[in-house]
Specification:
The complex is a heterodimer of chains A (about 325) and B (about 300).
Chain A: E1 4-16, E2 22-34, E3 38-42, H1 49-56, E4 64-69, E5 72-73, H2 79-85, E6 89-92, H3 106-116, H4 123-136, H5 153-166, E7 171-175, H6 183-200, E8 203-208, H7 211-217, E9 220-225, E10 228-234, H8 235-240, H9 245-252, H10 293-297, E11 303-306, E12 309-311
Parallel strand pairs in A: 3-8, 3-9, 6-7, 7-8
Antiparallel strand pairs in A: 1-2, 1-4, 4-5, 9-10, 10-12, 11-12
Chain B: H1 2-5, H2 32-39, H3 41-58, H4 60-63, H5 95-130, H6 132-146, H7 150-161, H8 165-192, H9 195-202, H10 207-243, H11 255-262, H12 271-298
Helix pairs in contact in B: 2-3, 3-5, 3-12, 5-6, 5-8, 5-10, 5-12, 6-8, 7-8, 8-10, 9-10, 10-11, 10-12, 11-12
Classes of the chains: A alpha/beta (about 325), B mainly alpha (about 300).
Chain lengths: ~325, ~300
């Protein structure tokens, strides 16, 4: 594997609340994303996966840990130096309706990063880049002169992708980028992202709760629970040989299209504990069907199950 | 045909599909002035009245032959006639020319207050919304100003400053700024959390450019509506101030002090109060109509209708 584009080391994001409470949204997370690779962050809502995305995009300051792009730390940068580096990591948001300025024409939305990062030498070159991007994301060629509200959800998401691509990034954070779309449009956008990844050698950090989509398009998966990664591995490792009980439970919750197939369903009891009051020991022990006494006392460290497959569980 | 079909149903005989009425006949969108009036009668009426009043104020020198300040002791309290269109007041001044000249005061006060309080309120609101530590200080000051009714505040300021048109404008602006600041702050705070603003940050847009390109244009629609309402309310406050003698000096005719002059006689000579009151109401109505259509028009999702 090539050197990673993005390295995240022991990243934590804590929010300090009233009454001396600390909300540990992200609590010591490490992973990396290689060039041209898709890493998916999956987990229930509130597990901190979006916070990681926002921290990498430097939209929220981190509490501790480091974020490196091409070996350079970006979590300590600020001002103009940060702004120039922002070109390398772009974002596609979940909500295609609030993620585009309703008063800007598509042309200007797509041109904004090109102008900011000075990626075009002349206005002719700028226009050429914008039309090419509109073409790349398969929008009609007259889309540039129109406003976002004239488009459907899927088309708006394409505008968002064109805007992200305009910066010529190395990594795109897809924060639930297809979750708001209906199934057929979702498939189109996922396929578009995959094509672009192959064509442009993009790395994707794909944040999602939709395991079916993740299984379709990812290279590697990191499963998160309550601000920590409980298991990380390749798609095959996670989807065919999951190790962590939480991964197994998530896996068994994905609906199967064939009604005749019977399988063992692992049903988790109760709700996710509050990230303000994280359980002792293994943070999953309150809902784990296999919890031992040890799990209540001792927090399991991630250990290698097989090559590049880590799982934080005491059980074998 | 139906009776025929209900019969034995001869072989090889089919009912022809009935001709369906066109559900949506093609709409011929009328263009030009007539089309505009048909589509949005409210805003057309508003704009027409406002243009007429503005025309009247600008051309006051040509529209009235009589000096609005000229006293005519032999022609006091005349009813409307061919010579005095709107009659005369108790000092024999021609009401028509006073009302025509009075439009200047109302319009200047209304427009300038609207402009000044919008600009000042925008600055205060932007500071509150963007520089968070100034927020609590600025907003408490604004709350303080807002806790006093605007008319009362304007009267107090006029009592301190003395009557002149500049002071009227300053006093009403002072009272109206908090309303704009509040609105702008609220809009800025909600826009800051919008994904497109975060997207602009990741796209390398600097903070001044985010304000200019993403925040300001999205603030304009609610703000423009507020501005028109402030314009209307400033005209009413000016009339009230002039009516109670705290507004423009008596030498300058304004709709408020014309009404004040006619107050003592209104039961016997109602026309003295009637004419300026009608003009004031019409102007305020027109501005509100324009404000409503402006709001609809500035929202791109409305597709320019309204």
């Amino acid at each position: 594997m090539t050197a990673p584009i993005l390295e995240v080391r022991d990243l934590s994001k804590h929010y300090y609340l009233k009454g001396n409470n600390t909300l540990k949204a992200v609590d010591g997370v490490s992973f990396d994303v290689g060039a041209g690779e898709t890493l998916s962050l999956v987990g229930e809502s509130g597990c901190g996966k979006s916070t990681i995305g926002r921290a990498i995009l430097r939209l929220v300051p981190v509490t501790s840990g480091s974020i490196l792009i091409d070996g350079k730390r970006i979590d300590t940068l600020s001002g103009a130096r940060l702004r120039t580096l922002r070109r390398r990591f772009q974002v596609i948001f979940q909500d295609p309706f609030s993620s585009l300025n309703p008063r800007m024409r598509v042309r200007d939305i797509v041109a904004e990063p090109i102008r900011n990062f000075k990626l075009a030498r002349s206005s002719a070159e700028l226009n050429a880049q914008v039309s090419k991007l509109i073409d790349t994301v398969r929008l009609p060629s007259d889309a540039g002169g129109r406003f976002p509200h004239e488009f459907s959800g899927g088309q708006r998401q394409r505008i968002g992708i064109a805007k992200a691509l305009a910066a010529q990034p190395d990594l795109i954070v897809c924060d639930e980028a297809v979750s708001a779309l209906d199934v057929s449009v979702k498939a189109q956008i996922v396929n578009l992202l995959q094509d672009l990844q192959v064509d442009l050698g993009l790395s994707l950090l794909f944040i999602s709760h939709d395991l079916a989509v993740v299984e379709h398009m990812t290279h590697r998966v990191a499963v998160m629970y309550l601000g920590k990664i409980v298991e990380i591995g390749t798609r095959e490792q996670i989807f065919t040989k999951p190790h962590h009980p939480y991964t197994k439970a998530l896996r068994s919750a994905v609906p199967l299209p064939d009604p005749m197939v019977k399988r063992e369903r692992i049903t988790l009891k109760g709700d996710v504990p509050s990230p303000i009051n994280i359980p002792s020991g293994c943070r999953f022990h309150t809902r784990c069907p296999f919890a031992l006494d040890r799990c209540r006392k001792e927090e399991p460290a991630p250990r290698e199950i097989s090559a590049r497959h880590l799982s934080a569980c005491h059980l074998d | 045909m139906a009776a025929h079909m209900s019969g034995a149903g001869h072989e090889g005989e089919f009912a022809a599909a009935p001709e369906l009425p066109a559900i949506l006949p093609p709409v011929n969108r009328r263009r030009g002035l007539a089309g505009l009036i048909a589509r949005s009668p409210g805003s057309s009426i508003g704009v027409a009245i406002l243009l007429a009043i503005v025309f009247m104020a600008v051309m006051a020198d040509y529209l009235s032959a009589i000096d609005p300040a000229r006293l005519s002791p032999i022609a006091r309290n005349r009813d409307p006639s061919l010579q005095y269109w709107f009659g005369t007041d108790m000092l024999g001044r021609d009401l028509y020319s006073r009302v025509v000249y009075g439009a200047r005061v109302s319009l200047i006060v209304g427009f300038l207050v609207a402009l000044l309080s919008t600009v000042l309120g925008l600055i205060v609101g932007m500071f509150s919304g963007f520089v968070r530590w100034t927020d609590s200080i600025l907003m408490r000051v604004m709350d303080g100003i807002m806790s006093i009714p605007p008319i009362l505040l304007a009267i107090a300021l006029m009592a301190l400053a003395g009557s002149s048109m500049t002071n009227v404008i300053a006093a009403i602006t002072f009272a109206e700024v908090p309303r704009v600041a509040r609105l702008v702050r609220g809009v800025v705070l909600s826009l800051r959390e919008q994904a497109f603003v975060e997207g602009a940050i990741t796209a390398g847009t600097t903070t001044p450019m985010i304000i200019w390109r993403h925040i300001l244009p999205n603030t304009l629609a609610p703000l423009s509506v507020q501005t028109t309402y402030i314009c209307a309310s400033a005209m009413i406050i000016e009339a009230v101030l002039s009516f109670i003698g705290a507004g423009t000096p008596p030498s300058v005719p304004s709709w408020g002090n014309i009404m004040a002059d006619g107050r003592a006689l209104w039961q016997v000579k109602p026309h003295i109060v009637f004419f300026p009151a009608v003009f004031l109401s019409l102007t305020v109505l027109a501005i509100n109509l324009v404000g409503d259509s402006l709001r609809d028009r500035l929202d791109p999702r409305m597709g320019g209708k309204g």
